[in-house]
Each structure stands twice: as structure tokens, then as C-alpha cells.
Structure of DUF4436 domain-containing protein:
Amino acid sequence: MDVSDKSAADATGEHASPARPASLPRRALVLAALLAGCVIAYALTLAWIDVSTAPVETEFGTSAGDARVRLYLQPIQVDPVNDSLQMRISMTPNPSLVDAASTAADRDFLIRITRGKQIEHVHIGAGQPLPEVTFEFDLDDGTVRDYPLDRYVSAMTLAASERSQDGTEVPLPIRVTVWEGLLGYTVKAQQATAQTADELQLQFAVRRTGAVAFFGIAIYGAIIVMVLCALVIGSLVFIGVRRIEVTLVGALGAVIFALPALRMALPGAPPLGVRLDVLVFFWAELGAVIALCLFVAAWARRGAKP
């Protein structure tokens, strides 16, 4: 009996040993293919999102030599929940004037700022310091539900005029400089067709920076991977393919609490209920709970007795 058992074991070993080295190259090829696919996907994502875009200053309106009024526009804050863009509008001095009085207005004039259906009037008196005002403009053609790929459009109309001696309003040529940078957002300005020749209408395309969009997508992808791993562990233990290891209970429980922490770590802190929450986060949290329940049910049924 001992000889026959040993012979059978030897025969089994002879057939099994060649299969083990043969599977090693195949696994190495699969691993290399997975890593190459991740690198290609990462490169395509970077090319699509364009994370290297840097903010710049753009200028609109009349030429620098003909401008009688110079304005500098700087976006301060974007509130996608309330669909508003906060913009600081500053009047800058004529660069040809280098004396101390260049920071004060040299005439009385009026600046009209149209935002939606409202028209704001900024009066500047001769000798007064050049003003700086802040207004909120509506964000249109977008919704925060599309986070992190949400995009918006905002518009404003600018005009300047002074009162002549006979009491009529004389339009003044305007030159506007726009800073297109904002933390977490990219603001691209372009000139649109105004209703009258003395007005300058600008449109702003607002979207999140490539880094924010990439990080948001990566976080939701990590949530999917974590819940799939949890479901694999719970399902294989429940059906009896893998043995019960009680230490995995802590890992599955940690996933349940880690998913909300990942979700709330998203840049911009979007409110719960965006489309990716419905497509990813909500079912992932439910899946993590189901995975833990499957594992506990298998442990209660087949776990080691005291």
C-alpha cells in the first residue's frame, strides 16, 4: 500500500509539476497587458482632459491707443449650486500716464454693466480713485449634476459714456483685459455680437480644470474597484469557493465607511445627487453592505465552532 501510494503521488507530481512553470509566463503576459492597458488609458485621459492648460490674459474691445476706458475683469468664485459667477471689475489707468495722478479719473463718466436683465451703473467722478466693483453673473447652459464634467456659459455687456456740454451721452471706446484663471476652474472669454456698436458683449465658457475632472473620475473609478473587490470576497465565501477568514470582516466593514470618505473628498465638494452618485456611489455603498452581509451569513452557517 505504501509503495502504491507513493507511486501514485509521484505520478501525480510528475503531471502537476510541468503545469506550474507553464502558468508563470502566461500570468506575466496577462500582468504586462493589464499594465500596458492602464498606461494607454492614462495617456488618453490626459490628452482628452488637457491638464497642462495654463490661465492667460486676453484682451477685447478697441485698440490700446484708442481706448478711453480700460477695464480689468477677474473671476473670483464660481458657485455651481446657485448658478452664479462672481466677477471683479476694476478700472485701470492709462499706461501712458506715469504720474501719481494716473490712479484717479481724469473726467466724469459712467460705466454700464448688463448682467442678465439687470443693468448696473457705476459713476466715476473726475479726480476720484479708479473704482473696483464686484457683481454676480448667471451661469447658463449647464448643471452641477454633470460633475466633474459640468460646463457653463455666462455673459455680460459693458459700455461707457460721458455727458457732453449739451447734456447728451457720448460713448467712450472700451478696452477690456480678462484674466482666465480661477482655482479649480477654467474661464475662457470670447467676444460676442453686441446690440449696438458702442457696447462690448463678452461670453465666458466656464468648466472645471482638467486636474479636477481627472481626479473626480479617478475617485469614482476607485469606488467601483473597491466595491467590486468587496463583492468578490463576499460572494466567493458565501458560495463556498473560498474558506472563511474572519479577518476579512474588518476589511469589508472598512470599505463601507471608506466609500463616503472618498466621495466627500472630491474637489469642489458637489452636493449629493449628481449623476455619478446615482451611477456609481449609491449602488457601490449598497454593494459594500451586501458583501459584508454575505460574508457574515457564510460565517454564521459554516464558521468554526467553539
Residues 19-49 form the longest helix (31 residues). The chain has three domains: 1-49, 57-208, 210-306. Residues 165 and 231 are 81 Å apart (CA to CA). The two ends are 37 Å apart (CA to CA).
